[in-house]
């Protein structure tokens, strides 16, 4: 098969790496890709949001399967465009991708179908939002309704912070049109767990669990980012919790989407909070997580293209997902200053150290090729992933891997996965 992967981050590099191992794969394209993805794929200079151009390319090159990594093209309706042209594509249609595209939609869906989540209210008027916040309990969570690169969530410790947050999101449009509608949500405490699942519209099969570190600095301090590192599995996600979630969250969500005429085919990402009152949904995403994918796929035994095909054909029940009995940790190497201002264009040294190192992986996120070599080209530059017999060993291996590679203004957290040791 000829396979096209859409996106350019560490998640897409991990997908390309996994797709390259499939017995069904003949050639891989990636649009737009990055310097690391070029090891497995022919990178094509088409933006992930240029939906018509991507469809034209898939038609011209007779691509057999397209896999979407990013949220923006899914929410914009890339699957509908491809299907109209008779092109095979893995991901939810526009009317199903709204589960990530609108937090207000997803909260209302959960309320309607009694899926456990935090209490909330939706607001399209900043003055009404501020009035509501005057009588609220703190801390409290403000969420921009639309897509905001994983950064449209503010946790406010008092009314003053909340009022400033409403202004930033709804009036100053810090996250653009994503802030036209605001979700104000009760603050939940507990362990945060990510569970990715394959869906075929009717059936759902979950992958191994993971935990993400969102904050920029050690000790979960600093600004929210797209993710500074992950580990898998989560020791807090027990068999009992999995069974509870399957019965009260996972299957009910797929069933709810079907009832709404929005059959979900693709990857459904469940962001969970394990509260004292049981697991609750923090958020849904309509695609692979980043950097969760970088620790989940290295542990997956299945041929991923076979699983993609089964989802599209409504035959997921025939697939038995299998994962290695080990652990994985990913440490993100970022540019100093991320997620705010940072410089790029610095030469990366030491990538060759990962060649033929079993259990060690370097997934490129913000990189590109230059005449001098591979250079930094983003806030998150590389994801250093390593496996081990347990989380402690995997973490030690991942941090060993971070020492093999260097670039100017290299920055990372030093506590990924260590809080659970």
Properties at a glance:
421 residues, alpha+beta, Rossmann fold, Dna Ligase, domain 1, D-amino Acid Aminotransferase, Chain A, domain 1, 4 domains, five-stranded parallel sheet, 12 helices, 28% helix, globular
Gap from first CA to last CA: 43 Å
Q: Name the CATH superfamily classification of the largest domain.
A: ATP-grasp fold, B domain
Low-confidence stretches: none
- Provide the number of structural domains: 4
* Average predicted local confidence, pLDDT: 96
Overall geometric form: globular
Total DSSP helices: 12
Annotated CATH topology of the largest domain: D-amino Acid Aminotransferase, Chain A, domain 1
How much is the radius of gyration in Å? 21 Å
Count all strands and give the number.
22
What do you see in this structure?
It is a single chain. This protein is of the alpha+beta class and 421 residues long. It folds into 4 domains: 2-94, Rossmann fold (3-Layer(aba) Sandwich); 119-186, Dna Ligase, domain 1 (2-Layer Sandwich); 191-318, ATP-grasp fold, B domain (D-amino Acid Aminotransferase, Chain A, domain 1); 327-420, Phosphoribosylglycinamide synthetase, C-terminal domain (Glycinamide Ribonucleotide Synthetase, Chain A, domain 4, Alpha-Beta Complex). The protein is 28% helix and 29% strand. The chain has 12 helices and 22 strands. The protein has helices spanning 10-19, 51-60, 71-76, 78-84, 94-101, 103-112, 126-134, 159-171, 239-259, 293-296, 304-312, 391-402, and strands at 2-7, 27-32, 42-43, 65-68, 89-90, 120-123, 140-144, 153-156, 182-186, 191-200, 204-212, 215-217, 221-224, 229-232, 265-275, 278-285, 327-335, 360-364, 367-370, 373-376, 380-388, 410-411. Strands 10, 11, 14, 15, 16, 17, 18, 21 and 22 form a 9-stranded antiparallel sheet that branches. β1, α1 and β2 form a beta-alpha-beta unit. α7 (126-134) packs antiparallel against α8 (159-171).
